[in-house]
Design a protein that fits this description.
- Helix 5 crosses helix 8 and helix 7 packs antiparallel against helix 8.
- Helix content is 63%, strand content 4%.
- The strands form 2 sheets. A two-stranded antiparallel ribbon has the order 1-2. A two-stranded antiparallel ribbon has the order 3-4.
- By secondary structure, the chain is mainly α.
- The protein starts with 10 loop residues before the first helix and ends with a helix.
- The chain has 9 helices and 4 strands; from the N terminus they run αααββββαααααα.
Length: 226
C-alpha cells in the first residue's frame, strides 16, 4: 500500500499536527486494558502511549538534574563516578553512547552529499532543525499535558506551501518558551556552582525559537516561489 502526504508548511503547523496525533494516540489507553486482545496488540497500544508519556518524564528529569546542585536548592544529589570534560558528562560508557547517538542523528544524511551545494543544504537543515526542535522538550510536553483542557475536535492541517506565517502569530505561540529559555540561561550562569553546558543548547533553542521559526517559514515560502 502506498500513501502520499505533504509536509507542514512551517514549524507551528508541525507542532499542531504532533499535538493532534498525541491526542488521538492517548485516546487508545483503554486498549491496553481491554479484554480479548492479544499481547502483541496490547503492547503496541502501550508503546504508542508510552512514547508520549515519556515527554513530561524527560522534562522533569531535565529540570531535576539542573536543580540537583544549585545555590538556590542546595546539593540534592551526590554521587561519585568517572567524569570527562570538567564534569559535564559522567560515566564514560554512557558518554560513548551519547556521542554515538548524536553522530547518527546529525550525520546520517552525509551519505546523500555529492557536491558543495548538497553539503550547504545539509548544514542549513541540521542547523535550523536543531535550533527549532531542541525546544520541543518543553513545547511538546506543554501541548500534551494541556490536552485534557482542550475541546475534542478535528482540525485539519493546512497544506498550502504558500501559507504565510506572521511575526505576531509566531511570537504569540512561542513567547512563553522564549522566556523559559532566557531564565534558564541566567540560571545556569548564576545559579549553579559550574555552568551546566550540557543544558545550554536546549535553552539557546528556546531563546532563538521566535526568529528561527519565522525565518525558516520565510525560507520555505521563498524556495517554493522560485
Amino acid at each position: 500500500i502506498e500513501t502520499y502526504d505533504e509536509a507542514p508548511a512551517n514549524s507551528l503547523h508541525s507542532r499542531a499536527r504532533e499535538s493532534r496525533w498525541a491526542q488521538g494516540t492517548l485516546q487508545g489507553v483503554p486498549l491496553i486494558f481491554m479484554k480479548g486482545l492479544s499481547p502483541g496488540v496490547r503492547f503496541m497500544a502501550f508503546h504508542s502511549v508510552y512514547c508520549y508519556l515519556a515527554q513530561p518524564v524527560f522534562l522533569m528529569w531535565f529540570f531535576f538534574g539542573l536543580f540537583s546542585q544549585s545555590f538556590y536548592f542546595g546539593e540534592l544529589m551526590s554521587f561519585k563516578t568517572d567524569i570527562i570534560l570538567n564534569g559535564q558528562f559522567v560515566n564514560r560508557t554512557v558518554t560513548a553512547v551519547l556521542f554515538f547517538s548524536l553522530a547518527v542523528i546529525f550525520f546520517h544524511k552525509l551519505v546523500l552529499v555529492r557536491n558543495r551545494k548538497d553539503l550547504k543544504n545539509f548544514a542549513y537543515e541540521v542547523l535550523f532543525s536543531t535550533l527549532i526542535y531542541s525546544g520541543n522538550f518543553l513545547y511538546s510536553t506543554w501541548d500534551m499535558i494541556t490536552i485534557p483542557f482542550k475541546k475534542l475536535r478535528w482540525c485539519p492541517m493546512k497544506k498550502d506551501p504558500y501559507d504565510h506565517l506572521s511575526m505576531k502569530k509566531t511570537v504569540k505561540a512561542l513567547w512563553a518558551g522564549t522566556l523559559v529559555g532566557i531564565l534558564g540561561l541566567l540560571y545556569i550562569r548564576q545559579g549553579t556552582p559550574h555552568i551546566q553546558w550540557a543544558s545550554f543548547p536546549l535553552f539557546l533553542s528556546l531563546c532563538l525559537s521566535i526568529p528561527i521559526v519565522y525565518r525558516s517559514a520565510k525560507s520555505n515560502q521563498k524556495e517554493v516561489v522560485y
